[in-house]
Amino acid sequence: MVRLSWSRALAWRMRQQLLDPVGTESVAGVVRRVGAVPAQLDAAAELAVRTRRERSRPGGVARALAEGRIIKTFAFRGATHLLTPEDGGAYLALRAASRDVGAPQLAELLRPDAVGLANASRGGPRRPRRRAADPRGARGGSHRPAQVPPSGLCVRRRVRHAAQAVRVAGRSELRPTAPDHVRYWLGHGLGAGRKRIQSWIAGLGDRLTAVDIDGQSAYLLREDLEELATTPTTTAVRLLPRYDQWVLGPGTADAHVVPPATRTVVSRGANIVIVGGIVAGTWSLIDNQVVAAWSAEAEPPAPEALAEEVARLATILDQPLQPGVRTA
Q1: 150 CB contacts (<8 Å, ≥6 apart)?
Q2: Within the chain, how many helices (H) and strands (E) appear?
Q3: What is the pTM of this model?
Q4: What are phi and psi of 84, to 5 degrees?
Q5: Of the candidates 234, 254, 272, which has an alpha carbon nearest to the alpha carbon of residue 51?
Q6: DSSP assignment letter at 184
Q7: What is the 3-state secondary structure (H, E, C) of 58-116?
Q8: Averaged pLDDT for residues 135-154
Q9: I need a labelling partner for 76 at 20 to 30 A (CA). Which of 97, 111, 220, 327 fits?
Q10: In this predicted model, what pLDDT tens digit does every residue of 240-279 receive, in sequence order?
Q11: Which residue has the higher pLDDT, 111 or 236?
Q12: What is the pLDDT of residue 109?
């Protein structure tokens, strides 16, 4: 069994999530790479996307929604997320296949432009229709439930293709992950049953390989093993918004990402500072200055690396920020 360190695994996950190095993907490309972007707060969702792009402009998420390149719908744990139409099809098919979701509930999960739901069973993407964006977004009860179109959205058909949907929906968590994380992401998040998840893992067969990460067993796609094993560790600093997918993917209970002492404040919606993939503290903006509170369980970043990230944040927000960081 290949043995790896958590510092290397987190560095590779940062690479996969376009955090180190920062990516050149489009808005839809970022959403696809991350898997799902929490979108309860529009400003946080836009910052989550823009901090993963070398070049971006304000309003990019809204434009991608208006053009149908991404969708906004209720997904994991009943919260609002940005998804690509293709991945949205897989995720919502899992919701439809669970015992608790039927046709009426599925209708409430969908925005009118979520036509990509049929893609999971059709073997490829379908170009979404262009629609005007709903300025109200898809936040709890602020929009009327969409009626399920008859073309390709039959719940029975979704159930027959649930196994394929699980394979698509689960791929973002095999980077690498323990079985409990897969169950957290797909089970607690979407209502997929334990037996269904276990059969999906078994169905991947030789595509999966087991690795040892500092004594903990985890799964990894075999095709990614060489890249992971050669990824250098990193001390890159990133200022991420509240409820960022970096922590919501594995869950705030994952002590390898979120030190236990900071779990409560992160779960309550604090902006986070990550150093090498670990939450080193939280941050807020007060009087055009970044004010940070550091975790006693993680190393604070090097001052020059933090100053560089603050400068990048100032460019993204298009507002002057003082170069120094005040400690709360």
Answers
A1: none
A2: 16, 11
A3: 0.81
A4: -75, 155
A5: 272
A6: I
A7: CCHHHHHHHCCCCEEEECHHHCEEEECHHHHHHHHHHHHHCCCCCHHHHHHHCCCCCHH
A8: 34
A9: 220
A10: 999 999 999 888 999 999 999 999 999 999 999 999 999 9
A11: 236
A12: 44
